[in-house]
Design a protein that fits this description.
Blueprint (H helix, E strand, L loop, with lengths): L6 H14 L6 H15 L4 H31 L4 H19 L12 H53 L8 H8 L3 H20 L14 E2 L5 E2 L10 H6 L5
Antiparallel strand pairs: 1-2
Length: 247
């Protein structure tokens, strides 16, 4: 999803993008350096928020802004002169601000070695794919269409994260294994209940709406899965620590 959403092409193609926006000589190189510095600096907050605010919450929070700032960049090319340059640079830099603290892998321990290998291979595959196709997108749809295309994929990614990416914050290693053993269908159902809860509680301001929880599977003394004692996964840390998973 990282490379599909064009962060690497922002980095590798931004010299061309900045040139198209009106910078000349060494100016596109300096602007590209600014993009990289922002990308580095705003990755630092992830060290403090990834296990407190949560990986899934960071992704759900940042992806809409990534889509917005890619649209801003693309629409900037519809303007002329310094207004075009200002809007394109603003969109590019703000995209880097939104992207850096949000992305990050999360895998159960028993498949982490294989999972990270596959993730790295897929990352470089999409990197190659985008390096070949992005210039063609620019020729076919111009910069506005190319950035709009990737903005749409940001929103597709947001939906997939909402439905299928589990939250891992404040969980022990044993709880992480149980968390990843939940089926995608069960997690998608839980995510839809979360959406309903947020709309009714925060938008419609209904005070007595029950927060959805998800049941974690456990194993008995014989290694058989059972779910007769539900455990809660919610946004409240106190609820999780009050009812830890049994070993």
């Amino acid at each position: 999803m990282d490379h599909l959403l064009d962060n690497e092409e922002h980095i590798k193609q931004n010299h061309t993008v900045f040139s198209d926006a009106g910078l000349k000589g060494q100016e596109p190189l300096l602007a590209s350096m600014g993009f990289g510095i922002i990308n580095f600096l705003f990755a630092i907050p992830a060290f403090y928020t990834i296990d407190t605010f949560g990986r899934r919450n960071l992704l759900l929070f940042t992806f809409p802004f990534m889509a917005l700032f890619q649209l801003l960049t693309g629409l900037g090319f519809l303007l002329d002169g310094r207004a075009q340059l200002a809007m394109v640079m603003t969109g590019m830099y703000l995209f880097s601000v939104a992207y850096s603290p949000g992305e990050g892998p999360s895998m159960p321990l028993y498949v982490r070695d294989v999972g990270m290998s596959m993730a790295t291979a897929l990352t470089w595959f999409f990197n190659f794919l985008l390096a070949v196709t992005f210039p063609k997108f620019q020729d076919a749809f111009e910069n506005t269409g190319a950035f709009g295309y990737y903005a749409a994929w940001c929103m597709v990614g947001w939906i997939l994260i909402l439905l299928f990416v589990p939250e891992t914050k404040d969980l022990t290693l044993e709880q992480l294994d149980a968390r990843f053993s939940i089926t995608s269908k069960s997690h998608a159902s839980f995510a839809l209940r979360q959406c309903s809860y947020f709309i009714r509680h925060y938008v419609l301001r209904r005070p007595n709406v029950k927060r959805p929880v998800i049941q974690l599977p456990q194993e008995d003394d014989y290694g058989n899965s059972r779910t007769d004692q539900p455990r809660k996964i919610s946004f409240d840390k106190d609820e999780r620590t009050a009812a830890p998973l049994s070993p």
